[in-house]
Amino acid sequence: MYPAYSVIFFTTASGAGYGLLALLGLGGVFGVLPGDRWFGITAFLLALIAITAGLLSSTYHLGRPERAWRAFSQWRSSWLSREGVLAVVTYIPAGITAFGWVFWQEIWTLPALLLSAAAIATILTTAMIYASLKTVRRWRNAWTLPGYLAMGFSSGALWLALLCAIFDTARIPSVAVAFAALVAAAGVKFGYWRFVDNDAGVATAGSATGLDRFGKVRLLTAPHTEENYLMKEMGFKVARRHALKLRRVTLGCAMLVPMACLLLALFPLAGVSAPLILVAVLANAAGTLTERWLFFAEARHTVTLYYGAERA
Amino acid sequence: MTSLPVQPATRRLGLVIDLDICVGCHACAVNCKEWNAGGHMAPLTDFDAFGEKPSGVWFNRIHTFEAGEGATGRTVHFPKSCLHCEKPDCVTVCPTGASFKRAADGIVLVNEDMCIGCKLCSWACPYGAREFDEDVGVMKKCTLCVDRIYNETLAVEERVPACVSTCPVGARHFGDLGDPQSDVSQLVAEREGYDLMPEMGYRPTNKYLPPRPRQNGGGCATAPASSAAPVPEGIDLGAHPFLRWVDRLLTR
Amino acid sequence: MTQRRYIAEPIPAPAPRAGEQVIDYSVPADDTVKTTTCYMCACRCGIKVHLKDGKIRYIEGNRDHPVNKGVLCAKGSAGIMTQYSPAKLTKPLKRVGERGAGEFVEIEWDEALAIATDRLAKIRATDPKRLAFFTGRDQSQALTGWWASKFGTPNFAAHGGFCSVNMAAAGLYSLGGAFWEFGEPDWEHTKYFLMFGVAEDHDSNPIKIGLGKLKGRSGADRAKFVSVNPIRTGYSAIADEWLGVKPGTDGLFVLSLIHELLRNDRIDLDFLVRYTNAPWLVIDAPGTEEHGLIYRNQEGDPLCLDRSSGDFVDALRAEIQPHLIGAVTLPDSRSARSVLDLLVNRYADAAFAPEKVAPQIGIPADTIRRIAAELAEVAFEQTIEIKTPWTDWAGRHHESVIGRPVSMHAMRGVSAHSNGFQTCRAIHVLQMLLGSIDCPGGWRYKPPFPKTAGSGPAPSPMVGPDQPLAGMPLGFPQGPNDLLVNADGSPQRIDKAYSWEAPLALHGLMHMVIHNAWKGDPYPIDTLFLYMANMAWNSSMNTAGTMEMLTDKDRATGEYRIPYIIYSDAYYSETVAFADLVLPDTTYLERWDCISLLDRPISHAEAAGDAIRQPILKPDRDVRAFQDVLLDLGARLKLPGMVDAGGQALFPGGLRDYILKHERKPGIGMLAGFRGADGTETGRGAPNPDQIERYIANGCFFQAEIPETARYFRYGNRDYLDWAVARGLIDHPDTMVLQLYCEPMRKFQLAAEGFGPKQPPSEADRARIRAYADPLPIWYPPFGEAESTDGFPLHALTQRPMHMYHSWGTHNVWLRQLQARNPLFVHHRTAAEFDLADGDWVWIESAHGKVKAEVKLMDGVHPGTVWTWNAIGKRKGAWNLSPQAPEATGGFLLNHVISELLPPRADGYRYTNSDPVTGQAAWFDLKIRLRKCNAAEAGATEPTFAAQKLHGKTPERTQRYGAGMNKVPS
Ligand SMILES: Nc1nc2c(c(=O)[nH]1)N[C@H]1C(S)=C(S)[C@@H](COP(=O)(O)OP(=O)(O)OC[C@H]3O[C@@H](n4cnc5c(=O)[nH]c(N)nc54)[C@H](O)[C@@H]3O)O[C@H]1N2
Ligand SMILES: Nc1nc2c(c(=O)[nH]1)N[C@H]1C(S)=C(S)[C@@H](COP(=O)(O)OP(=O)(O)OC[C@H]3O[C@@H](n4cnc5c(=O)[nH]c(N)nc54)[C@H](O)[C@@H]3O)O[C@H]1N2
Ligand code: SF4
Ligand code: SF4
Ligand code: SF4
Ligand code: SF4
Ligand code: SF4
Ligand SMILES: [Mo]
User: Does residue B83's CB lie within 6 angstroms of at least one atom of ligand 3?
Assistant: First the structure.
């Protein structure tokens, strides 16, 4: 699948933003996070900017962005519509929770819980857009949902850890949560890649054409000698050698470097932990973008079976 | 309207494509382009028309495959357009309601005025039947020629899809696959028509008729098993190659 | 199996459902509909052009039209984009820069015509043959040939010489009809269809419709379709049996089939005796000047020995019982044998036994035997009977027509080899032995055929300055006397047609014109006048060399060796840049055209037919229909037949006038339909001023149905012969005898053996004629094989893509999206030998040159053969395409490695790379080797040439054709 930059940026940014919002809600309700005005302003601004930027960028890849509002209508059947609805709906508990947090310096339980739930649900709907596509075996599997969740949470948690370090609050728990999320993300991605490497796809050139009855099916000539929309959009391929390198980049940047930074940040060296976690955040962002790029680039669509692929 | 019709009518219009006789001439693809360029989803934009990377919007395309090897190997021409599936995820994934499956005849369409061009439906179609028009920013697709099959300004015999009426060998058939008595349904039954990628569960309406087994023998299957007919006894071909004809009296 | 192409009853439109888009189904597709004839290729289908607000909305097949019956191919459907192509020429051009550079000034028509008239008038007044007028893929030879003859130059030909004259010559001299587009299988009834070397052919839609019909039959009715072709694509892909023969060996295969049929006594002797020259006696007097000629009486009638009377009688008489087998002593005590005797003697020879020939052909002996048995089984055990009474030429009445339902068709896979003439003859002999010519289920003629085999006027030599030819430049030699050679045996025509190098060159040798004119061999010319032929590119052998010859200058004088070139094209093809004067033509939707029975009509087996094109649109630029221009030039030159006694133009209205007024013979004109003052006469009749209106009202075509009793065995069917005479198709109702033995060939051989006044000039020429002008079919390896000994082990072929017409499709936005580059297809086992994988690049090297291409592996190809699609590769900058267009960087021409000449003979002379009998270009004799490209070489084709100068407006990048056409007009 063609890795559209707007979509990559969108899923990365909004994953982090909703991850942060979910953790803010939970951390607040369970009293781990302080009901502090400035902490609140910074955290909510950060999260809301991330999700808003993400949402805006996602409209970039629309052919008719001015009609984006129509996307809220089909929540009964469409995960994309559900995501849109939830993404927007999340602003409501986010706004209320932020309002209490900033103006009253209070954490209102119900809105905060709703916020967490909505944020998590938004991440899940994003994941479901991909996980529901029968055409892409590398998306439609048990790893996609946990993948999005773990990646979103780990980014969000790193941001939270950074804020906690800056505001010098809840340092240990925030680092611990981030570390746990990173471990989970690493595990999930690892599992995903193993799955992907052993996956035979959902269909073959034989079943796509029904010609397997005569033997092995090979494309002789494609309908066009130059690339068409389908091939540009669905036929994107990344060399295996390349993909392996990028997986290492993902693992290193998105997980290992942040983990190392977090561990170092636990040592109470004044002034160093925040910059360390900032490094973690940035590395993680780079790694997550890579992961997202790969998530698209490695995905094989069944339409490629009509253009020379043997399985997909 | 991206939920599928709850109570679809029994009419399911679609195409039956005979792979036994398709010669891969692209006539159906170009005629489709021609009709539809000015049809319901007009235009079918072309990009970089005279340049380095020509491409454009097409609703129908012809692939050619080889299957098997050697004496039993086959070359098969393989036209493909929208299959107007019964369980089309291309419809259910659409966030706007632009994509819809018609309750009355099963035709899957895009309402251009509602489409936001998110391309998700093209991701959801296993068969590559959706075409994004970058220029207009909306998704387009085979309409099963709704503007021909129901077009009262056309003569009755013209009310078939463009690709069907133009196919020089007659490899494309159009009709109601929901009616087991229809010509197309019977053709499918007789020739064991099949679904593409049944494992996807989309339940395509369009059916493909498989290439038939090759026949050896003259005409039908009655050719002599061993055709190395022996040289008639007692005639030395070398010396008298045509003794047999010498005595025949033939009148001009 | 019932087809749902056309529906019996309309499906009622459903009422809109809640929430569903409301669609206006009934948007009218047009405000005007006009019929005309498609010309996206030469198949001549009928079309209906739907116009909306003066623009084309839709072109569809005309359901009433006999050729395509409503269907339309990819090219035909893409006609809109050709009409609106930015590659169209817009104005007459005069060269200002160097030839080939594409530097022109636009001039007015008056100036263009004055330049041409001036030049041509001088030529005509001095030496008319110094005008060489050659036309390519046109359908106007009835006019262009007539024009050349009035001009007085013998140097005229159309594309047939580089196309398929082997098929025409072999057919016309054997059956009085030919494959090509002049006959067709009886699709309705045939049970066994054997097709040789066809990828697409001229009868593009009719073949497809026919194959659909044939393959659509089921159960006991099923027919078998066998395709003989080194490549399994297109039609071969749907064949019941694919025989992937080695190129150039079809003749051997067919002769082996004949061997098997003879050996098993499976031939139709009755048919042979009745309708062929099988019983004619051939004089057996070695070393004399009549050896091998038909034994004839004083009047020249062939004789045979009647067994009932014991007399030598006129072989054309009915009710005789001819002697067939064994030597005959003639009254003059010479010996003779029947044609059949000779034939059996030759092919019963063990040299043609399947075991013997199988290894050369590349298919098993068993298969050859089986196919022979299948042919015989269908011909003789599955005969069909149609209960139509008919009367034969002798007046004998028959209650029904018996058919041997085996049909055949062959085209360029046979014709484009240097043994193509003899191979095609072999196929016709096979058909005759099976008794399957023009019978139900067999191969059938399309009117105006059949004609008496080999009949027709001889080619006309030049008369002199300011004199027209006595007849037509192209004709039918009956022997050495009809050749166009000088006393010393040298050729009279620039292309050496009708010389000892190509005695039966019925269509000329288009592919040699540029070379010969450049070399001044046999003489230099002044002006090369080309029409509709892309000779600087895909229709020449040795493309790079051809471009050099076109631009080469005489060192002494500094003049171009081909002094002047006039070219008419409609588009910026590669050849335009090489012209000194460009006459821009209209498109096929902007002009009158005539698809005449005098030329290449639209007949089918059951009707004689012709057609016209009418202007659908007005040109939006300063172009003129070439045929109008030609008549205008003729009038300016005061050519006979084009001006009246007072020197006034006879056809001021151009081709339209000519169609209406011109009579080739009294009562016979360009169109056969609606003749006579009241439009009721067919074929023969006075000119009718309303004729064109009548054609338009009839869908732009006309069909004269052949009566049911006259549809089969037409060479000997009295009703048909009378019908055809009445309509001017033939002159006499005499029966026409099919020719197993081709006597004119023997006459050439006799000359080569030293008899007669006209003899080949050199020993080499004699040897060639002796070897190849055999009156009975022979097989010899194609000349290209000889080169294979030098390390060129692979055959290389081209095929036509069904969706492209030579170079015409290129500038069509839709068609170029289907195909903008062409790979070299290689069998995967062969590829493995050369370590080639998909996407690798290779050098294709022949003895002549090399060209680079990308590789695509496949299975369905003869392993010793590689191939590619024809005419996809384009020169940079031509056709108003971007110089980076894939056609120029990834598309290539095999023509670069094909030489127009054979390797030199002992004295250094190089014969044309053509069939030695007909001069047909041997495109498919090519032998090559492959060399894998290194990394630096991969990625783009070579050779490439400087980009041609772009002409015309820069085309729009994004095309939105059709936008808004779906709205109901307000
Ligand atoms: N779409 C389209 N239609 C066309 C044209 C076009 O350019 N495009 N051109 C028109 C013209 S000018 C012509 S002449 C006709 C020609 O029409 P075809 O005769 O169909 O010409 P080709 O495409 O050259 O196909 C030649 C076939 O012969 C096979 N072949 C080559 N060598 C041998 C051999 O030795 N033995 C056998 N048995 N087969 C062999 C090749 O594999 C190929 O399939 O088509 C006409 N119709
Ligand atoms: N390697 C290889 N080469 C081949 C062949 C092959 O099989 N293999 N086939 C050969 C055969 S059979 C043939 S017939 C030739 C065909 O060769 P050509 O006869 O040269 O055919 P085209 O390339 O179509 O070129 C015809 C020219 O006519 C122009 N034209 C198109 N429409 C019009 C019009 O309306 N008016 C005018 N005035 N011009 C027009 C086109 O722009 C083009 O320049 O190619 C031969 N070349
Ligand atoms: S073929 Fe594709 S676009 Fe057509 S209905 Fe099925 S899923 Fe949808
Ligand atoms: S591209 Fe248009 S039709 Fe397709 S899913 Fe998006 S909104 Fe629906
Ligand atoms: S039904 Fe109509 S829109 Fe669909 S492929 Fe055929 S011609 Fe094209
Ligand atoms: S028009 Fe008919 S034969 Fe040609 S590609 Fe389409 S389905 Fe096949
Ligand atoms: S075969 Fe195609 S291009 Fe040729 S005349 Fe017919 S419709 Fe036109
Ligand atoms: Mo040709």
Answer: yes
